Amino acid sequence: MNRFYIEKLIVSGGWHKDTVIDFKPGLNFILGPSNTGKSLIMDCLDYVFGFSPKKNRPSKIVDNQYGYEYVTLHLATGTGSVILKRKIGDSKILASGTDPTVEHGTYSVSHNAKKNINAVYLHLLGIDEPHVIRSAETGTKTQDLTWRSMLHLFFIRQGDVARESSALLAPNSPGPTASASVLLYLLTGKDANSLIATEDPKISEAKKKAVIGYIQEKVKELTARREKLEVALSSSSITDPRTSVERIRKEISDLQTRMDAAAKESQQIMSEIYAWNGKLSESKTVEHNLSVLHQQYQADIRRIEFIVDGAASISPIRKKVKCPICGEYAERVQSTSFIEASAAELEKIKHHLSELNIAQQDVNHQQKTIITTIRALEEKKDTIDTLITNQLQPQLSSFEEKLEQHLKLIRLSGELDFVRQDEIQYSSELFNKETEEISRPSKYNVFEDYDYDLIKGFEEKLRQILKASHIGGANSARLNMENFDIEIDGLKKSVSMGGGFCGLLNTITTMAMSSYLIDLGRNAPGFYAVDSSLTQLSEAEHKEQNDTIKQNFIKYLISNAHERQVIIVEQTKRMPFIPTDSEENAVHVIQFSRNKEKGRYGFLNDVYNAEDQ
To answer: Which residues fall within 8 angstroms of residue 315, CB to CB, at 6 or more apart?
Structure first.
């Protein structure tokens, strides 16, 4: 966790030599008589912390700057240094330094400024996202989490140290809610967005009206739909659609079965027609072949008859020829034996033609039979197809249409039932919402968001410091959640302690809380500063000076000086002893003498009290 602390305070400008206060990381005492500027140091620190002077809370350095012009604060961080310089009387702060995480430039102390110094300090605490906290007991009012809203836990000015009100709450706060919400965030990280907010009655009323308007519109829509459904159902002649649906479905099933059977039979007939057409085609092929053969036979008969007839009409031819062997001439008569052979062939062909004629007649008869069969099958198929097209399909379509009408009525009837139920439900909700009373929220009690486990560690730290300081009743000390302040022996601080004890107890309370935050690893700076916590406390004269509350409190601070930076501003005479400046013990002492001739007179150079000039 990045815990920054204060390194140096410089007041400069005008004709003055720079006034410088160097702080150390451990325990720092700023001691001196009255009117030496001790509280002015706290005022200057607060000024660079972003304090804006008001009429009822002025700033010493602004109202009486003695010619000085600037207040500069050097802070040490985990990654370098941050230098913040503010001109006296101005609302701007110039940021510079070596810390690379801090943007250099001019920041304003105004909460409404785009670049607000608040963002720098919160960043140094490790808070980079904006947060809002609850700020009032009633309503939903919130305010931004700021550096100034938590500063009272780590930085206590003289005017606030001895107050009777709780030191855990910001001084002059109008109520405890905002301050307690800031501390709750520091302890838990919970802001207004993390807590259950009480709704503003005006918002509740507006929401109620919006819901009523929505329900009224829904009832109106449902009523219109119900009336439309009732008209649709009453106009139908079908009285019991659910009973008829089963009958219609059976009719559809039967028709579908008949259609499937008819379609199957039609398909089978078509297959038979295809087969018979194949046979007819084969028969026509045979017929064609027989016709060709018939023509061939007739041609052969005509040719042979021509030969036979020609041979019968002429005498045999006699011709002398020379013998190739003997050389003698002899008479040769042409043979007529081929005539008998041709006549025999002619008879044979005529016999084949007669058989061919018989075969052709058989083929013609076969074709007529096939054609008759095909026509019969086609007529049968046409009859079946006509049955499907003109009777079964229209009947099926009619039943399907009836079924859809019945199913539609069933759906409308079911929808009507749901619409009626919704109408009743919304009407009931409308009645309940209209008669609902807007509850007036109880006051928001921020302390209900605390629990004992959260406070226990703080109380242990508180009792530890009280016991170390030898304050009576330390073991009984606790945080009273009614006024968010400590009590000892069952008695509240405000009714049992005087101003001196209030100053010390407020110091111990805030010191314990800031230390507890560090122990928890929560967001808190690495310094604690208080002004005049011992000034008003006077103890019994019979007390041993080495065993007073003051003595033991200072001893406790010294023994724990290495834990963090603590700045104690106190009058020298109110100190039980002057601690020894020791770097080894982390104790640093700054003393003002109010003596121009001895030591450092006071805080500001060249500034003296009138009686010392």
So the answer is: none
Which amino acid, 25?
A: P
Domain with CATH 3.40.50.300 in the chain: 5-198+444-612
* Prediction pTM value: 0.65
Torsion of CA 161, 167, 169, 171, to 10 degrees: -10
Q: Report DSSP letters for 565-592, one per residue.
A: EEEEEEEGGGSSS-PPPBTTTTEEEEEB
What's the token pair of residue 110?
């105004």
Cβ(103)–Cβ(95) below 8 Å: yes
Token pair listed for 317: 């031819």
What CATH code is assigned to 245-387?
1.10.287.370
- In the chain, list all ranges with CATH 1.10.287.370: 245-387
Sign, CA dihedral 540-544-547-550, equals: positive
Four-way CATH pick for 5-198+444-612: 3.40.50.300, 3.40.50.720, 3.40.50.20, 3.90.380.10:
3.40.50.300
Q: What is the pLDDT of residues 154-208, one digit of tens each?
A: 999 999 999 999 999 999 888 898 999 999 999 999 988 876 556 667 777 788 7
